[in-house]
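User: Hi! I'm a student and our assignment asks us to look at how structure tokens line up with a sequence. Could you show me two examples?

Assistant: Happy to help. In each example below, the sequence comes first and the structure tokens follow. Example one:
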Amino acid sequence: MSQLLHLVIGGRVQDPQGLEFVDLKALDYVGVYGSYAEAVDAWRSAAQRSVDDAEMKYVVVHMHKLLEPDHQH
């Protein structure tokens, strides 16, 4: 079984409905996690810190899907 990696990042977005970040140099790299549950906990914590700022968005990136796109997880 391969390792399932999840990256949590956030930053200011052009449109709260989209995923286009305004300044890639200013992204908040929350961390890399070995399980989706850990990543969601980190995402939730980071998102709650910026809940009053509609232009701040945090996301979970499934890194394992990028590293092994043909592998079924």
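Example two works the same way, sequence first and then tokens:
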Amino acid sequence: PAASNWAGFYLGGHGGYAWKDDDFTQSVLPPVATGGIKASGWVAGWHAGYNWQYGRIVAGLETDFSFSDLRGDAGPGTRVFFGTTTTNVLGDRVKNLATARARLGWLPSDSLLLCATGGLAWGRLESSSTDTQVAANFTQTDVFRTTADRFGGVIGAGAEWMPWGPNWIGRLEYLHYDFGQFRDATVFTSNRAGDVPYAERRGRQTIELVRAGISY
């Protein structure tokens, strides 16, 4: 049995960096495909949980909440609707992230815990669309923003250790979030001279997060 005691309630803070992938595509015919948003930025927040210990096996439940500033834009896409040329730039921003997870770990030594985790994920995502329309007699730019709460799953792994005695725990962990498909699928066709067929495919939204933290 392990000599150290990992059981009980803990509370802590964390910070790290994340990368988000939204792999949608926009296709203009004849085939010209653009799209996909690569966002990145910082993440910081708090976590709390409870551990149960059975010899060198540690099981627990944890919840966390993070503020974030992941931002990214897609390359501009151009299409023609009814004689008007529209250039569109899509953007993503992640404002908040949270999870509720189960954890299961093993103690290779008394002061080191290796664990895997998985559970439910929530994110507040803001999508933006900047449209610049150019026609024979006018130019107009419109910006649209929508905020939505998205739910999905999260899995990950990490390591924890006790660098300053039995009450302080340092951690390093990796989490993978999957929020599924977000954007609607769109298809435009027209028999009007000069119009160009257009299609947009929904993309899967995933986030990769690496963060460090400390718990008491």
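Here is something you could point out in your write-up. The longest strand covers residues 84-109.
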